[in-house]
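Data deposition worksheet. Section B asks for the primary sequence of the deposited chain exactly as it was used as input, without tags or linkers unless they were present during the calculation. Section C holds the resulting structure in C-alpha cell form. Section D is free text for depositor observations; keep each observation to a single sentence. Incomplete worksheets are returned to the depositor.
Section A, Depositor: J.P.
Section B:
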Amino acid sequence: QVQLVESGGGYVQAGGSLRLSCAASGPTFSSYTMAWFRQAPGKEREFVAGLSRSGSSTYSGDSVKGRFTISRDIAKNTVYLQMNSLTPEDTAVYYCAAGAGGNSFTVSRSAAVYDYWGQGTQVTVSS
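Section C:
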C-alpha cells in the first residue's frame, strides 16, 4: 500500500513558478512509476509529467513541455513537479500518482493504469 500526499499548491500570477511535492509512504520509488496529472473544472484528467521506475526516463505532456520538470529525491521518498512560466491555463487540481505495472523504463500517460493517488493540491494562476 502506498500513500501519497501532495503539497505546494497555491495562488500565483502568470509567469510565476511553483514547486509541488508528493511525499510517499510505503515501498520506494524503484517499485513504482510516478506521475503528475491535473484536472480543471469540466475537463478530463490530463497527464502532466512522469518518471520511470528506474529514474532514467522522464516524460512531459505537450501542453507543459519545456516549462514543467518532474524529479525525485529517493532519500526523502518525494517526487517534485517544478512549474515555470505558469499561465492561467495551468489552473487545476494537481494529483500525484503511482503505478506498479509496466516496465522500469517507460511511463504511461493513461490515468487508468495508476494504482495510487494523492488527494490533490489546487494551483491557481491569475492573469
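Section D:
The chain has a mean pLDDT of 94.
The CA atoms of residues 36 and 88 lie 18 Å apart.
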